[in-house]
UniProtKB/TrEMBL annotation:
Source superkingdom: Bacteria
Organism: Azospirillum thiophilum
GO cellular component: cytoplasm
InterPro entries (alphabetical): Mal_deCO2ase/Cit_lyase_ACP, Malonate_deCO2ase_dsu
Keywords: Cytoplasm, Phosphoprotein
Record Pfam families: ACP
Protein name: Malonate decarboxylase acyl carrier protein
Length: 106
């Protein structure tokens, strides 16, 4: 297992504090994503625990893309990955962040 952490600044907090959201399943080729509000001084922190060791640059590229599409602040995202492809990771994060924001724009 490998643990990765990414942090992003420059996002905007949602006007309301949404409830935490959990999507996905911990299973082969899939992942579980927990999105929750957190007082992080404007940061978006993404913590990843993955079974696919040695793909840090790929994770960085996927997280950069997700943050560009969902620039949120004061947010913690926890990912438990069991070998999901980058496309599945991006789709699960889109699902989780859209459900978390409930259609609200930052």
């Amino acid at each position: 297992m490998e643990s990765l952490t990414f942090e992003y600044r420059g996002g905007r907090a949602l006007a309301a504090q949404p409830a935490p959201v959990l999507v996905g399943v911990v299973g082969s080729g899939n992942l579980e994503v927990l999105v929750e509000p957190a007082p992080l001084g404007g940061l978006c922190r993404i913590e990843i625990l993955t079974a696919a060791v040695g793909f840090g640059a790929t994770w960085q590229a996927v997280m950069d893309d997700v943050f560009a599409r969902h620039p949120l602040a004061d947010l913690r995202i926890s990912i438990n990955d069991v070998g999901a492809t980058p496309a599945v990771v991006g789709l699960r994060l889109d699902q989780a962040l859209e459900e978390f924001a409930g259609g609200a724009k930052p």
